[in-house]
Write a structure and sequence with these properties.
This protein is of the alpha+beta class and 313 residues long. Helix content is 44%, strand content 19%. The chain has 12 helices and 11 strands. The strands form 4 sheets. A 5-stranded antiparallel sheet has the order 2-1-11-10-9, sandwiched between helices. Strands 3-6 form a two-stranded antiparallel sheet. A two-stranded antiparallel sheet has the order 4-5. The longest helix has 29 residues. The radius of gyration is 20 Å and the shape is globular. It starts with a helix and ends in a 6-residue tail after the last helix.
């Protein structure tokens, strides 16, 4: 490392420490008056894509050139503790999001449903028919959430939406109300599972908000970090569930979150990983292939962990 590069890193460390200290001292009093829900919302709104990224862009840091070769159409990589945006591409431009939609479906089911309820697969929710749930089957809601998130089961999402919202339209209204509450200003939900629809779209930055908020829920985070599970049906049978997120097995520290694919949206992945007490969140949209979405996400996460200095607490 040259003397110039070393000096830049020292400056970066000092600046980040100063910013964090300033934020802490200015916000302690006001934060004490906030409810846990308000603190959670404040946390996901704490995003800084100016100071840190400008300094980072001024240096030829490790693997930076490799990011320019990625096939993904859009992404955002963020450090959860500080809200600093480490890397982004077209992060505020609307894109189709495929099954990343199910993050919102899962969150609303957890927040608004009775997890011990029985959810039946009726004819009006047996729509896509490419799913693993079958007409006439019944599931406890808690278990059906695993089937939806691990296997990305489209009809499981419809069944949960009907059970929580009364019908798909009512549930989509709930989805859009929650999106507005979270500050997802460039997002609109048209269905609970992300199947192709011209008005089901979001941005990488909006989906980062949703991911950070949802992962603060203990059940949500438990579900999306699960690699495999035997999902019981109410008739006593079980269905083997394998998580479609390969990073859970291949990337050290991965703790979720959700895969997505349609021809319209391309290959998408929302991911989170923790190393040495630091958690990074990444949303990657429209990668070239199923394999490349995992490879490119790993490259971005590696980049993030390599350039984010560890700040003393």
């Amino acid at each position: 490392m040259t003397q110039t590069h070393f000096s830049r890193w020292i400056y970066l460390l000092a600046l980040l420490a100063a910013v964090v200290a300033c934020r802490h001292s200015n916000s302690v009093g006001s934060r004490m008056a906030l409810t846990p829900e308000q603190l959670r919302l404040e946390h996901i709104s704490d995003v800084d894509s100016t100071t840190f990224i400008n300094i980072l862009n001024s240096d030829s840091t490790v693997d930076r050139e490799q990011l320019e070769t990625l096939s993904a159409d859009a992404w955002m990589l963020i450090d959860d503790a500080t809200g600093f945006v480490i890397s982004q591409k077209c992060a505020n431009e609307p894109r189709f999001m495929a099954s990343l939609t199910k993050m919102m479906t899962c969150l609303l089911a957890i927040e608004n449903g009775n997890l011990s309820d029985t959810v039946n697969i009726t004819e009006d929710v047996f729509i896509c028919r490419d799913s693993r749930v079958r007409l006439g089957e019944g599931y406890v809601m808690h278990d059906l959430l695993y089937e939806m998130m691990l296997q990305s089961d489209n009809d499981a999402a419809y069944a949960l939406a009907k059970h929580i919202g009364g019908d798909t339209l009512g549930f989509c209204e709930m989805m859009n109300e929650k999106a507005a509450y979270l500050g997802m200003e460039s997002t609109h939900f048209a269905n609970p599972n992300g199947m192709p629809a011209p008005d089901n779209y979001s941005t990488a930055s909006d989906l980062i908000r949703l991911a950070r908020y949802a992962m603060a829920d203990s059940l949500f985070s438990e579900i999306v970090r699960t690699r495999e599970k035997k999902v019981p049906l109410t008739d006593g049978r079980h269905m083997d569930c394998q998580n479609t997120n390969a990073l859970l097995s291949t990337y050290d520290g991965c703790i979720g979150i959700k895969t997505g694919y349609t021809r319209q949206a391309g290959n998408c992945l929302a991911s989170a990983a923790t190393r040495d007490g630091r958690t990074l969140f990444l949303v990657l949209l429209n990668s070239r292939s199923m394999r490349s979405r995992f490879i490119e996400s790993a490259i971005l996460l590696d980049y993030g962990f390599s350039v984010m200095p560890s700040l003393s607490q």
